């Protein structure tokens, strides 16, 4: 339930902030102005000195971290269905109004300018789209959507409402992806024709069947609101607060958790567009002591290998991308010195070009041409790409800056949407079945050669929580 007294106190202070700052109105589906023309910056956008009013949907966990990096602004509302998880943020921002239902917050509290969405994956699009349709700028945690269709829809809604957006893949604000782009544009390793990427995730249980126990719902959790758009099922701690990523109804598995970080350099450096095909390989279902293991009916698999093919584009040749998770790894490159760790240890990427290889960590960090002797010999080109102040630690501030001056943030939905579509296409391939090469029409979001797989491109929504 929302904190009614706190909310009313904020709303009953006489003139609202918008009225005080110029009485501007929000047209349905249109961008808004939060200061009058007398204090606008010279470019006609909001003066950078003005603070915006930020709300969070999902105030604990990652949401709490995002909020801590937005404290240059006014934190005016916190929405969370789990009072225990959100308790630290409630204590930290005592003047912020409290809500359990984001729909109530958006209808009631009119002084919100921008919203952080840091919920489980299945709520990203319903909450994010609702915010954008209310004219709010949005920062949505990765992956920005739960399905391929949702990722496309969110980018479309952002454009229609002319709001500033950012996905929470902080490595995209970092130095590493920009360095690698400059190096490859400089011809450091020649044309890239193959990329391999990996992560140690999942670090939570996967490959499970739905639990049959029906424990009591904690008093601090609004279970029906937590379910949101997902089909109704009994509460179980196998879902909340940690392992929801494993379950298809709520999360996107290992690739959904990490690929928007790990594969971000690929989409930045190579601008691949849509893949032409995708196929997946996962462990087969087996029985151990009478218990079925590694089911993908309800859950993501314990590990997977996913293979994408991308076409030729601009002056760059076609290339292949292979993703490994669950402890599976690509072959160790012969150029890598003995005893040297691949990537960042837990995750990484290797670009394989005609003239050499570049390796980096899971956020595009610490990129190096391998072997190190070639890195030391390489004369780096001049900087050609604009940097984000603060690097990966400035990701939220890059979004705040965009909200004020109207210049899109670096991982806005026009960039993050297509990347997320490709990432989540990997789950379509997993659920379609082993070693089944799916021909993909990215423009129309359709599998061309296996119609049954198209059921995983989109999903059904529970009434009242759709997009």
Task: Please summarize what this structure is.
The protein is α/β, with parallel strands linked by helices.
End-to-end Cα distance, whole Å, is 23 Å
Instruction: Output the structural class.
Output: alpha/beta
- What is the mean pLDDT? 90
Give the strand tally.
17
Shape: globular
Structure annotation, total helices = 14
Instruction: Please state the CA-atom Rg, rounded to the nearest Å.
Output: 23 Å
- Classify the beta-strand content into a percent band: 15-25%
**Portion of residues in helices?**
25-40%
Q: Extract low-pLDDT stretches.
A: 1-44
Major β-sheet profile: 9 strands, mixed
Please give a structural write-up.
There is one protein chain. It is built from 14 helices and 17 strands. 47% of the residues are buried. The longest helix is centred in the last third of the chain and has 20 residues, at 413-432. A hairpin with an 8-residue loop joins strand 11 and strand 12. Mean pLDDT is 90; it is low at 1-44. The chain has helices at residues 4-11, 17-20, 62-68, 83-92, 102-108, 124-133, 148-161, 175-185, 223-227, 253-262, 264-270, 372-377, 395-405, 413-432, and strands at 53-57, 74-79, 97-99, 114-117, 137-140, 165-167, 192-199, 277-281, 286-288, 291-293, 304-310, 319-325, 347-353, 357-360, 368-370, 438-441, 446-447. The strands form three sheets. The chain has a nine-stranded mixed β-sheet with strand order 15-14-13-7-12-11-8-16-17. The chain has a six-stranded parallel β-sheet with strand order 3-2-1-4-5-6, sandwiched between helices. Strands 9-10 form a two-stranded antiparallel sheet. It is an alpha/beta fold and 467 residues long. It is globular, with a radius of gyration of 23 Å.
């Amino acid at each position: 339930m929302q904190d009614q007294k706190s909310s009313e106190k904020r709303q009953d202070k006489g003139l609202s902030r918008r009225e005080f700052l110029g009485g501007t109105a929000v047209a349905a589906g249109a961008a808004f102005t939060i200061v009058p023309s007398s204090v606008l910056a010279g470019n006609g956008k909001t003066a950078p000195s003005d603070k915006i009013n930020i709300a969070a949907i999902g105030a604990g966990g990652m949401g709490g971290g995002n909020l801590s990096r937005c404290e240059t602004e006014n934190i005016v509302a916190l929405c969370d269905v789990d009072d225990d998880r959100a308790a630290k943020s409630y204590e930290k921002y005592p003047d912020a109004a409290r809500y359990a239902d984001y729909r109530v917050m958006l209808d009631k509290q009119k002084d919100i300018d921008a919203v952080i969405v840091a919920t489980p994956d299945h709520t990203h699009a319903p909450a994010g789209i609702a915010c954008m349709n209310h004219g709010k700028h949005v920062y949505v945690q990765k992956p920005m959507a739960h399905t391929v269709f949702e990722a496309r829809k969110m980018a479309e809604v952002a454009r229609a409402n002319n709001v500033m957006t950012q996905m929470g893949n902080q490595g995209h604000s970092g130095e590493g992806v920009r360095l690698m782009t400059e190096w490859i544009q400089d011809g450091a390793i020649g044309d890239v024709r193959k990329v391999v990427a990996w992560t140690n995730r999942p670090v939570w249980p996967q490959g499970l069947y739905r639990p049959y126990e029906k424990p009591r719902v904690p008093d601090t959790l609004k279970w029906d609101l937590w379910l949101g758009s997902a089909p109704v099922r009994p509460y179980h701690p196998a879902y909340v607060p940690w392992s929801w990523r494993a379950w298809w109804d709520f999360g996107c598995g290992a690739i959904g958790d990490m690929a928007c970080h790990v594969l971000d350099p690929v989409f930045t450096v190579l601008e691949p567009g849509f893949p032409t095909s995708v196929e997946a390989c996962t462990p087969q279902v087996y029985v151990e002591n009478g218990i079925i293991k590694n089911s993908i009916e309800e859950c993501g698999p314990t590990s997977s290998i996913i293979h994408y093919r991308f076409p030729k584009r601009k002056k760059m040749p076609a290339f292949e991308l292979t993703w490994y998770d669950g402890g599976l790894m690509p072959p160790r490159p012969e150029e890598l010195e003995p005893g040297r760790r691949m990537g960042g240890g837990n995750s990484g990427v290797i670009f394989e070009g005609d003239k050499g290889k570049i390796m980096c960590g899971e956020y595009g960090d610490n990129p190096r041409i391998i072997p190190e002797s070639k890195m030391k010999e390489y004369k780096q080109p001049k900087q050609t790409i604009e940097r984000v102040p603060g690097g990966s630690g400035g990701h939220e501030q890059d979004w705040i800056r965009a909200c004020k001056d109207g210049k899109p943030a670096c991982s806005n939905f026009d960039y993050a949407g297509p990347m997320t579509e490709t990432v989540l296409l990997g789950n379509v391939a997993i659920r379609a079945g082993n070693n089944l090469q799916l021909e993909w029409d990215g423009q129309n979001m359709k599998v061309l050669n296996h119609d049954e797989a198209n059921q995983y491109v989109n999903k059904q929504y529970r009434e009242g929580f759709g997009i």
